[in-house]
From TrEMBL:
The keyword Signal applies. It comes from the Bacteria. Residues 1-20 form the signal peptide. Residues 25-54, 94-113 are annotated as: Disordered. Keywords: Signal. This is DUF3500 domain-containing protein. Residues 37-46 have a biased composition (Polar residues).
Amino acid sequence: MKTTMVLAAVLMAIPVAAMAQGVSGTQRMNGQEPKPSVTSQNQNMSHPGEYTTGLTNEQLLPLSVHEAWVQSGRNEDRFFDMVKQLAELSAQKRGLSLPENETAGQKAGDWIKKEARKDPDQLLYVVVDRAVMKVGTRSSPVASR
């Protein structure tokens, strides 16, 4: 799958940044660590059976980088599935195709890692969307609609 290769670097990049940041700003103020939730396959997902996040796009969109990491149960595979899901949504909405090469994946992963470290309270979708814009290429008009 296209996104697997392109976003392989993200798997290694974001969890490290999210773990290094600890608790989100609001939770830091209250001295709380959020509890990871257990996710399971959700029949209402946009792409049923394709992702193991157990979350719909609507549930993923408002999550910060740190919240997504906690929501994944601090599991890299689940977190990577979240990133892939958001990347595919971003590429679809923007009419972009994700290239199938390691260089593009490394570029996206490095950029996401840098941005996630700057502010773990920013939305994960925003970080992923910006990375998709950096590495994505225009799809044919017929394929994107």
